[in-house]
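Re: beginner question about structure tokens

> Can someone show what the tokenized structure looks like for a real chain? I only ever see the sequence side.

Sure, here's an example I had lying around. Input first:
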Amino acid sequence: MEECNKLCFEVKRLGHAIERSIRNDMSRQGFDDMTNMHGWILGYLYRNKDVDVYQKDIEKEFGISKSTVTNIIQLMEDKGYVIRKADKYDSRLKVVKLTRKGTSMHLKTVEIIDTTMDTLEDGITEQERKTFDRICRKIMRNIELQEEYDD
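And the corresponding structure tokens:
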């Protein structure tokens, strides 16, 4: 079967298209320096503002590598969106927290992202959503099984 007909390839293409759409909408609203991943991380930190969030939590939540998260958090820190503070029990660990600027940026971007997602998901029925969710869970389960086998 040709690669372009494989389900995982289509999911990857879809992910890139969604990111591009969000980035374009953000740019039209004047948020050129905000990447999609910055927006997702700001949202995650906002939803978890009452608990300590560590870099490893962000790695797990978004399925990205330690080095990628380190680079993203450093850039977000340089822009004033987040700060890293030493954990109160283990100073080797750093808690990632939103700043006021980060909170404000999140509240501004969430509206743009929600509007974009509503547009992209227009016309999708509840049954189609459930089917897509089942397929995604199966693919994730297969990935986890493969990772267990590889270990």
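Each token stands for a local structural state, so reading them left to right follows the chain. Residues 72 and 117 are 23 Å apart (CA to CA).
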